[in-house]
Specification:
binds zinc ion, 167 residues, alpha/beta, binds magnesium ion, 40% helix
């Protein structure tokens, strides 16, 4: 079975000015590409799971979101020769009470099924309690809640995953 690291997007991988609707506004934190390469080299799939209620609010078009994720992959390829394996997102507003918006685990559990990923060898990294809760409810081995935009905490989570995954 495959194993994966599920990644929140905004403020985990990239600075978030709020409802990023244009690839021009999207940039990775400078430490992210090389850290993700370590995970990729260790055999983990990389799957972004992101609440994008800007779509449901009419602030972000789905085509723009695709273009933003293409830019993310282009940046990762340029910096480290890697890409994200899949981008999963919830487009709904909180008041729609959907079942996929984190902290619901559905974005993760559907990916587990779709890619035959073993949750007991997989991890979640995100900056919100809702990320942590989604990972926990999906039955992942471990979830890491890091401070928004923290280089040190992101690197520490990756190091712990690599250490734990090699045991
Ligand atoms: Mg976030
Ligand atoms: Zn949803």
């Amino acid at each position: 079975m495959a194993k994966a690291v599920f990644l929140d997007r905004d403020e985990t991988l990239n600075p978030d000015p709020g409802y990023i609707h244009d690839p021009e506004l999207f940039n990775l934190f400078p430490w992210v590409a090389s850290e993700l390469k370590k995970l990729k080299d260790a055999g983990f799939m990389l799957i972004v799971v992101s609440n994008q209620s800007g779509i449901g609010r009419g602030l972000i078009r789905e085509a723009s979101l695709r273009a933003i994720h293409e830019k993310c992959d282009a940046l990762l390829t340029e910096a480290a020769g890697i890409k994200i394996d899949s981008y999963e997102f919830c487009p709904h507003r909180p008041d729609e009470n959907c079942d996929c918006r984190k902290p619901n685990p559905k974005l993760i559990t559907e990916s587990l099924r779709k890619f035959s990923i073993d949750p007991s060898q997989s991890y979640m990294i995100g900056d919100r309690a809702s990320d942590f809760e989604a990972g926990t409810r999906a039955g992942l081995k471990q979830s890491f809640q890091i401070p928004s935009g923290s280089e040190e905490a992101f690197k520490k989570a990756v190091a712990e995953i690599l250490e734990s995954g090699s045991r």
